[in-house]
Design a protein that fits this description.
2 domains; mainly alpha; 179 residues; extended
C-alpha cells in the first residue's frame, strides 16, 4: 500500500510540474547547476507569489478522489475508519514533502531563468495583472480541457494520416477490441 500511495503522490507532483509544459526543457548549462543565493531567494519569492503551495493543495484536492478510489480498490472490505486513515495518510505525506518539493522547484527556477528573468516574473506575478492571471487560471482550465477533448477525434485522424505517411498502414493489423 505504501508504494501505491507514494506512486500516486509522485504522479500528482509530476502532473503539477508538467502543467503548461509544451516540450521537454533544454539541458541545464554547467553554469546554471549552482544557482546563486540571490537567485534562489527570488525564486522562492516567485513561487510564493505564484501561490505554488496553494496550487499543490488544489491539485491534490482535485486528484484525491481518483487516487483514493485506486487505493480503495486494492483492498477488500475497508471500513470507513480505514478509508479515512488512508486519506489522512496521503494528505499528511503531501504536507510533509511539500516544503522539500518547493525548495527543489526554487532551485530549478533559479537554474532555468536568469536573475533578470526571475525579477521580471516576480514583478509580473506580484502586479495586479499577474494576480488576476493567477485568480483566473482555474476559470480557463476546464474550458481548455473541454476544447482539447473536442479536438481528440481530429487529433486521432491527424495522427493516423501522419503515421500512414511514415508506414504503409495497409500492412498494419488493428488490435482486437477488448470487451
Amino acid at each position: 500500500m505504501k508504494r501505491s500511495i507514494a506512486a500516486g503522490v509522485a504522479a500528482v507532483l509530476l502532473a503539477l510540474a508538467s502543467v503548461g509544459q509544451a516540450a521537454p526543457p533544454p539541458p541545464m548549462t554547467p553554469a546554471a547547476s549552482q544557482p546563486s543565493a540571490a537567485a534562489l531567494a527570488v525564486s522562492r519569492d516567485l513561487l510564493r507569489v505564484m501561490r505554488m503551495k496553494e496550487l499543490i493543495d488544489q491539485s491534490m484536492a482535485a486528484l484525491m478522489p481518483q487516487l483514493m478510489q485506486s487505493e480503495y480498490r486494492r483492498y477488500q472490505g475497508l471500513t470507513s475508519a480505514q478509508r479515512t486513515a488512508i486519506n489522512d495518510a496521503v494528505v499528511d505525506a503531501i504536507r510533509a514533502i511539500t516544503p522539500a518539493y518547493l525548495e527543489k522547484a526554487a532551485v530549478i527556477y533559479a537554474q532555468t531563468f536568469t536573475m533578470e528573468e526571475l525579477q521580471a516574473l516576480l514583478a509580473f506575478y506580484s502586479s495586479p495583472v499577474g494576480q488576476s492571471f493567477l485568480d483566473k487560471q482555474p476559470l480557463i482550465l476546464a474550458p481548455l480541457q473541454v476544447a482539447m477533448t473536442s479536438l481528440m477525434p481530429q487529433l486521432e485522424r491527424e495522427m493516423e494520416k501522419s503515421l500512414c505517411r511514415r508506414l504503409d498502414c495497409r500492412t498494419l493489423t488493428p488490435a482486437q477490441q477488448q470487451s
